[in-house]
Design brief:
about 40% helix, about 15% strand
């Protein structure tokens, strides 16, 4: 996400060869802890680390 903020959850799952649902669960945990956030829409938004 840091090197490619435009990456999607599906792309991460494919790259890491793990289930998409696993990525979704982990991203949700990071969002709940205010570590990352998604700016914009699902298809054309970007990921950003919260400071």
């Amino acid at each position: 996400m840091q090197s490619n903020p435009n990456i999607t959850i599906a792309q991460i799952a494919l790259y890491l060869d793990i289930p998409k649902r696993t990525i979704e669960n982990n991203v949700k945990k990071l969002k709940d802890k205010h570590i990352i956030e998604r700016l914009g829409a699902d298809k054309n938004g970007i990921w950003r680390g919260v400071e």
